[in-house]
Design goal:
Length: 220
């Protein structure tokens, strides 16, 4: 199979399951493209998976590592109850500004807080908050293991942690791969030694080529 086939299947899925255009998300994507943000946001089918997971566990507190243009932020925030909150961490101020405009246009600014700067610097300020129900990790890949370790300590029993881009075109099994792939190997070794979670990794193909995600359930 070729990458063209993967992209075509994604297009078919979007054209059937997502037949009604979502003007808010389309505008968010257009603004991100116009601002020159890298095209690394989740695809619509992947975003729908995030929404399904958040709804399935009744998430009212969500933490996101990596805001980019706010596409995934909007999708997850839409699942929140009236008193719910999503905190999203974005390193790049320019990215955060695009996301802020998109979130406001979506009418979700009352539910979403963007914290700008290195995520590891922001985490101490979240130590005394309520536990999170769902954590989405989609930021700088070198720090994925650190983000996951923090999340395990701050997600309620029965909550979930979703780490994206962990397969990296197969780099996860290449000992000579770059530091980003090496971090995903470390993540899996870390999870294997962590008794508080049950986790699996699913390989994916699609418009973003060959990759995969790790989904962990924090045990009750």
């Amino acid at each position: 199979m070729s990458e063209d086939t993967y992209a075509a299947v994604d297009a078919f899925i979007e054209g059937t399951l997502f037949a009604a255009e979502d003007e808010v998300l389309a505008a968010a994507q257009a603004d991100a493209d116009a601002a020159g943000l890298p095209p690394i946001q989740v695809t619509p089918p992947q975003a729908r998976l995030l929404a399904i997971l958040c709804e399935a566990i009744g998430a009212s507190r969500i933490l996101e590592f990596g805001t980019l243009g706010g596409y995934s932020t909007i999708v997850m925030a839409r699942t929140l109850p009236d008193d719910g909150q999503l905190i999203t961490l974005e390193y790049d101020p320019a990215h955060a500004e695009v996301a802020r405009r998109n979130i406001e246009r979506a009418g979700l600014d009352d539910h979403v807080e963007i914290k700008v700067g290195p995520a590891l610097d922001a985490l101490p300020g979240l130590e005394n908050t309520l536990p999170f129900d769902f954590v989405f990790i989609d930021a700088d890949k070198v720090n994925t293991p650190s983000y996951f370790a923090w999340a395990v300590d701050h997600v309620r029993p029965g909550g979930m942690i979703f780490a994206d881009n962990v397969v990296r075109d197969g780099g996860i099994v290449d000992p000579e791969a770059d530091v980003h792939s090496a971090a995903q190997r470390t993540l899996h070794e870390q999870i294997a030694a962590e008794p508080r979670v049950t986790a699996t990794t699913i390989q994916t193909v699609g418009a973003k080529a060959y990759d995969g995600f790790t989904l962990a359930l924090v045990k009750v």
